[in-house]
Amino acid sequence: MDYIEAVRRRLGHDLVITIGCGGVIEDPEGRILLQRRRAEDLWAVPGGLIEPGEFVADAMRREALEETGLDVEVGGLFGVYSGPEGYAAYANGDRVFSVMLIMRARTLTGVPRAEGEGFLAHRFFSREEFPDLELVWGHQRRILVDWLSGEAGPFLR
User: Fold this and answer.
1) 41 CB neighbour count, 10 Å cutoff
2) pTM: predicted TM-score of the whole model, two decimal places
3) What is the distance of C-alpha 84 from the center of its chain?
4) Superfamily of domain 3-156
């Protein structure tokens, strides 16, 4: 049983503060990898929760491999995201307030999985072909607005 499952057994669906990590994963052409989440049917950056004692870069590599099938090289910090947009409610009733540590990463090996347990698709997008922000999971729109800006960061939001 992982950490969040143990917490949920004690607290049920009550609000939990989580620390997540995710990646602005770019291919050699500078396109960003997004995944279409099954639960919300919206695009998001790959990522997940950091386990107790885990280094952020290790968590990012683990999440990228688990969710996308890609081996990535983690670069520097892209941004730290908190504030009111960090609240989320899931279909199962779980509520969270998440602080997200978003890392820069580049693909090393592998091909993005077409589909999996928690997602419908993976796709690389250039800034010019980026989907409408209304099709991005609200919890993550600020990350993608920052990526679209082309500014170097790191961003503190």
Assistant:
1) 10
2) 0.91
3) 17
4) Nucleoside Triphosphate Pyrophosphohydrolase (3.90.79.10)
